[in-house]
Design brief:
Length: 130
Amino acid sequence: MVFNIGSQQAGVINNVAQDQHVHDGQSGAISVGAPELTELLGTLREAVGREQLPPAVAPQVAAELDAVGQEAAQPEPDREVVADRVTRVTRLLREAGAAVTAGTSLFAALSGVAGWLGTLGQPILHLLGG
């Protein structure tokens, strides 16, 4: 026998082949925000923090990253907003002479966010030379 189970969304999903016995109930948790984006943003913040950015650029980058953090905390982050903000961050970093070349932690962090964005991350990858 073969089961083809499509997309499911619920607090608790049980797919069992035989009998299932549940004692003392079941519970589930609902995730708020985008934990993967939050983790990627933390990595990006760390990488940016290691750069010696000009005093005029550092607050701009911080403001953009803060806005991405606010978006990441939403139940359904707007990927277009994140893409626009991270594209701005990438441009600011490149213009400031930050090391955004392959093999650097900054490149890896920006690439990670671009990957999370999917096709919306293409402008970021283009700025990175990828």
